[in-house]
Task: structure prediction
Amino acid sequence: MDLLERARALAATAVLGEVAAPTLIALAERAGVRDLEAGANVTTRRPDGAVVVVVAHGALTADGARNGPGAVLGAAGALDGAAPAVTARAEEPSVVLELGQDDFLDVLAEHPVAAQALARMLATALREARQVAGAR
Result:
C-alpha cells in the first residue's frame, strides 16, 4: 500500500476526513501497515502504548460489530491510555493502518475538526450502548 493509498484510507474515516491533505500525508508516512489473513486478530494495545487501527480494506469484527473500510478502532484508548484494548478479527483478507497514540493525539490537538468528529463518534457509541443496556 503506497503513501497515497494510506492517506486516502485515513481521509475515508469520520474522524480524519476533514483534516488537510498535508497532515494526512504526514500521518500516513508514520502509519504502520498490516496485511491480515482471514481469521487473524489485531489489537489496539501494545506494550509501548495504545494504537489506533484504521480499516483500509476488508472487514474486521470487534465487539460483535462488523467494521469495514473507514472504521476507526481504539480511539477511546488512545485518548486516555486507560480504556480496555479492542481486539478485532479479520473476517476476510484485510489491510489496516496502525497509528501510534502520540501521532493520533497530535492530529486531534492540531485539528479541532478531527477532535469534534471523534467526540461525535464516541457520543454515538455511548448512546447506542445505553440503548442496548436499557433494552435488556
User: Anything to note?
Assistant: Residues 3-135 form a domain with the Jelly Rolls fold (CATH 2.60.120.10). The mean pLDDT is 91. Helices lie at 3-11, 21-30, 75-80, 101-110, 112-135. The chain has one domain: 3-135.
